[in-house]
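S.,

As promised, the coenzyme A run. Input:
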Amino acid sequence: MPLSIGIESLSLYTPRFSLPLHSLAEARGIDPNKYIIGLGQEEMSVMPPDEDIVSMAANAASKIITPEVKDSIKLIMFATESGVDQSKAAGLWVHHLLDLPKKCRIIELKQACYSATCALTLARSYLSLHPDERVLVIASDNARYGLNTPGEPTQGCAAAAFLVSHTPRLLEIEPEQGYHSEHIMDFWRPNYLSEAIVDGKYSTRAYLSTLASSWDDYAMKSKRGFHDHSRFCYHVPFSKMAEKAHERLVKINSEQNPSDTLDISKSPSHSLTYSKKIGNGYTASLYISLASLLENDPHDLSLQRLGLFSYGSGCVGEFFSGIVPKEYTLLKDKNRLAHEDLISSRKALSCSEYEQLFSHSTPTNGSEYMTPVLTEQGFRFKGVKNHERLYEHV
Ligand code: COA
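Predicted complex:
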């Protein structure tokens, strides 16, 4: 019997500013229902100039690094597609800010929104050789498409930090994974741009075909079908995408099993509660969805199997599964209250305030620069001096 490995604790962070999408719709002369019903999004988090992937990551991880677990963290994997340095792993700043043990390895991983899932897989392999250790996985991203673009209402920013260990209290990961990789240009961000280039319609089609292919591979390897899963979590670039993904899985299942009836309790609604208000968190978004499901689904999910789909444009997709341990109920309310507070305490911006923050430019030639203080508590990005990024705790 293989030892169980999985997610022991999971914490989310998003900056303290948001934009209600009805305000964006009004400013852009668009029917708000396009965003709220058509894309399934109500609000999006907005990144102030004194936050970045490092401050968000440190703010998320600080909530799960207790004195009991600190010394056992021997590997940190930082997943992002909003990297702040071409050479240094962003996790080194987090390691420093959280005063983690020096006997630790740190790397950064990149493949669009997929890389945190790869980190989870690598963490499982690593922990099978090092059963007494823990791995800290951090997914942190700022989703930027640009003002007045079709992608604008699907922006957002967030970090998810989770500990992977032999004491999974939130999700025990099962060994079978189905995956699919293919060189396509649906979404990418050249080094000289701060916003992504995206063929949005093509990327939604690529997401769905990658889901179908990853699911087939997973179903073949695990010999499981749709009904062997109690709930599903999907990568959420916008909520409607996850609903379309679920419809695709249901369709695949009904084509293979025409007599099956659709169980609507399996729809991804509770997994979307947080994403509808945070927006896209790129690498973090599947794990925002997982936290949302575990904390908001009113049913007891103990010992239930979840199916999870991760998609990173370009593209790599992976379908995998996990069993929810009974202990998850001990963390459910505490985590939900913390995440609800994080989301509801954000300051709602007007569209012009959002545009100001979005357009705030930082020098790209390394000249000294101090950020305005907008983040009132936790870790913040202080500025750049001697080409070095500086952070502080307020
Ligand atoms: N009321 C209700 N729904 C409305 C509406 C209204 N007044 N107006 C439009 N809609 C619906 C559309 O029917 C469509 O739904 P459907 O896809 O189920 O048919 C949805 O709103 C979006 O409208 P659409 O015209 O397709 O939007 P768009 O061309 O402006 O762009 C994206 C949508 C997702 C392509 C764009 O936001 C984008 O590029 N996002 C970034 C890329 C991304 O997230 N990719 C996902 C894969 S990783």
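The CA atoms of residues 145 and 195 lie 5 Å apart. The pocket of coenzyme A is lined by residues 31, 33-34, 37-39, 145, 150-151, 154, 198, 200-201, 203-204, 207, 237-238, 241, 311, 313 (CB under 6 Å).

- D.
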